[in-house]
Amino acid sequence: MKFLRLILLLVMMISISCSQNGNDPEPMENENSKDNPDSSDSDTDEDTNTEDDNTDNDSNSDDDDSSMDTKEDTDGVKYGDNFIVFEPQITTSDLGLWKKRVPEDSKYHVGTGIEAINRNYLEFTGNNLNSGPPTSPLEYNFKCPKSGKYRLVMRMYQPLAEGEAGDKRNDVWIKLAGDFTTACVYPTEELKKNHKFWGRGVRKWGSTYNLEGHVNGVKKLAKVVYNLKEGEIYTFTMSGRAQGCSLDYILLYEESLNFNIVQHTDLAEELPELYRPDVAND
Ligand SMILES: [Ca+2]
Questions:
Q1: How far is the CA of 42 from the centre of ligand 1 (A)?
Q2: Closest CA to 178 of 215, 231, 128
Q3: CA of 8 to the centre of ligand 1 (A)
Q4: Strands (DSSP E) along the chain, which ranges?
């Protein structure tokens, strides 16, 4: 019997020592948990930022994660289901070297077709008739009415003097800021930088309709189309390039509308009236 008890005792001791060895995974779990503190380090930066946001005089209490929400669209932008249109003079930027032309002005262009909408437009008076650096930037905020691909065009007029070639006084600099991607040949990042935007309207209202940029080092002249998101606010910037270039209005329309806009196309004549800025009552 003593021998049997001894064997039983031995079996018990062996089984206890086996169950202790079975806890091997624990130390490994502890090693894994060491990774967690590293990944949470960056949170502290965000915490200090929200303090800055709270110092703004902002009546909305629960949008401190995006200061962009405080941006509003510029007064005077006209929206449709699938387009955005506005006149350049609605900007709140300093006009600088842009001049507002009105009928009382001797340089105002009356023309023979549809007159400038609201009988006003902006003419750039800096640089020279060929080009120059981006000058007197004008900003516009607009809200996208519906997600889609939007093409940019402008109603443009070239006030050419006698003997001046048809490819003068016909361009501006443009760029777009906000949450968009490209829907044309140019990379998204290029559309966020200033590029020449040009067209034709030789001594008459026509249009600017193409960008001049580079794709993989090769010069490209092509249309500008942006993928825009419903409800997002975008900032469009137009700066003066060629002296004399005159703009009546700026239009972004859903590309699927398939408007035919080529050299010398007068946007007001070619497109339905809906796609023009509203005429103000006075
Ligand atoms: Ca106008």
A1: 50
A2: 231
A3: 103
A4: 78-79, 83-86, 98-101, 121-124, 135-143, 148-157, 171-177, 181-182, 195-200, 205-215, 218-222, 225-228, 233-240, 246-254
The two structure tokens encoding residue 278? 């509203």
The CA 54 to ligand 1 mean position distance, Å, reads 40
What does each of the 282 residues of the chain score in pLDDT, given as a tens digit?
555 565 555 445 545 444 444 343 333 333 333 333 333 333 333 333 333 333 333 334 444 444 455 789 999 999 999 999 999 999 999 999 999 999 999 999 999 899 999 999 999 999 999 999 999 999 999 999 999 999 999 999 999 999 999 999 999 999 999 999 999 999 999 999 999 999 999 999 999 999 999 999 999 999 999 999 999 999 999 999 999 999 999 999 999 999 999 889 999 999 999 999 999 876
- Strand partners of residue 215: 218
Domain spans of the chain, in order of start? 78-275
The CATH number assigned to the domain with range 78-275 reads 2.60.120.260
Phi, psi of 39 (to 5 degrees): -70, -20
Predicted TM-score of the model (pTM): 0.76
Tell me the CA–centroid distance for residue 205 and ligand 1, in Å.
11
CB atoms within 10 A of CB 246: 27
